[in-house]
Design brief:
Layout: E1 20-22, H1 29-32, E2 38-40, E3 45-46, E4 60-62, E5 67-68, H2 72-77, H3 85-90, E6 93-95
Length: about 120
């Protein structure tokens, strides 16, 4: 994958395969949406995950250490991606370590195929 500018920095902590994408600062769903099965967004500021609507084969999402939303609207709508049918059909792993959640998002109930550990 070619990264187009200095705002895209690959996180070398993760072993890449053809179905993984990881970044440290910024991400662009348009450039990665067609082949990704694992989306690793560790320690980034996530304002929206609406790009997941077009990712019908996503299996794993890691948001560990990330912060969510800068505005009240972004914080209120951030978890809406869990309602997308394609995500419910394919997502089996969701990692949310060290994200300082004060309550579990009610949208989590829509992710019926998550594996319990």
């Amino acid at each position: 994958m070619t990264l187009n500018d200095w705002t895209h920095i690959v996180n070398v902590e993760y072993k890449f395969d053809m179905g993984s994408f990881s970044c440290l600062k910024r991400y662009d769903f348009e450039s990665t949406k067609n082949n990704i099965t694992n989306l690793i967004l560790d320690n980034v500021n996530v304002s929206s995950l609406k790009g997941l609507t077009t990712m019908s084969h996503i299996k794993c999402i890691c948001l560990s250490g990330s912060t969510f939303g800068r505005t009240p609207f972004e914080k209120d709508t951030l978890w809406n991606w869990m309602n997308y049918p394609n995500v419910d059909d394919s997502l089996t792993v969701l990692l949310l370590d060290s994200i300082n959640l004060t309550e579990v998002p009610f949208e989590l109930q829509y992710l019926s195929k998550l594996k319990r550990h």
